[in-house]
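Module 6 notes. Inverse folding takes a fixed backbone as the condition and produces residue identities as the prediction. Think of it as a translation problem where the source language is geometry and the target language is the twenty amino acids. Below is one complete input and output pair. Work through it position by position during the lab.
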């Protein structure tokens, strides 16, 4: 049988792609128009640990969701402009947009603050039942980088995670929940 994708789903996916493209274009325009040094970087975080608790309106907690990723935790691609960094990170299948502020404490130790946002829309087809879900994920965090070589920075960070979730199964009411928790990332950035 042929699966029909709703027009609103296609439009929202196109909208998210446009937001990511516009963000990257804005970063490139700011970088090219400014006289500051711009450094692109690639990050890999092979160790990623997250722990969140799902809460439902009106009381009641869902199960604690804990995951540990070894080998593939997350990848990021971004730019460092002066004391700021911006990147797109791919972790567990959805992209997130992150902004960082690096404190210049010394040449080797690089502490930072972070804020991030991710949006995920999924449609799962279970035969006669279709499940639609939307996740809006916010994160704030801090961490420290340690420069071990001219272009290599080891990175350790912790994030507070807050997510709003909506699920809809055809023929039943919309279910809403909130996830709260934290994540720990260990990895490295290769800065050019």
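Target side of the pair, the amino acids:
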């Amino acid at each position: 049988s042929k699966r029909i994708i709703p027009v609103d789903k296609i439009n929202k996916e196109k909208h998210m792609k446009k937001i990511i493209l516009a963000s990257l274009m804005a970063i490139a325009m700011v970088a090219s128009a400014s006289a500051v040094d711009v450094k692109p970087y690639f990050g890999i975080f092979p160790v990623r640990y997250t722990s969140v608790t799902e809460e439902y309106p009106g009381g009641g907690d869902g199960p604690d969701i804990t995951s540990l990723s070894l080998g593939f935790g997350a990848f990021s691609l971004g730019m460092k402009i002066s004391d700021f960094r911006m990147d797109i990170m791919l972790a567990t299948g959805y992209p997130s947009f992150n902004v960082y502020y690096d404190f210049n404490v010394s040449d080797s130790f690089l502490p930072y603050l972070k804020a991030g946002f991710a949006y995920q829309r999924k449609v799962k087809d279970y035969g006669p039942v279709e499940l639609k879900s939307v996740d809006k994920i916010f994160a704030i965090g801090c961490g420290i980088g340690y420069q071990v070589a001219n272009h290599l920075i080891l990175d350790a960070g912790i994030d507070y995670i807050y997510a709003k979730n909506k699920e809809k199964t055809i023929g039943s009411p919309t279910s809403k929940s909130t996830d709260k928790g934290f994540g720990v990332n260990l990895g490295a950035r290769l800065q050019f």
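Reference fact for the lab report: Confidence is low (pLDDT under 50) at residues 1-10.
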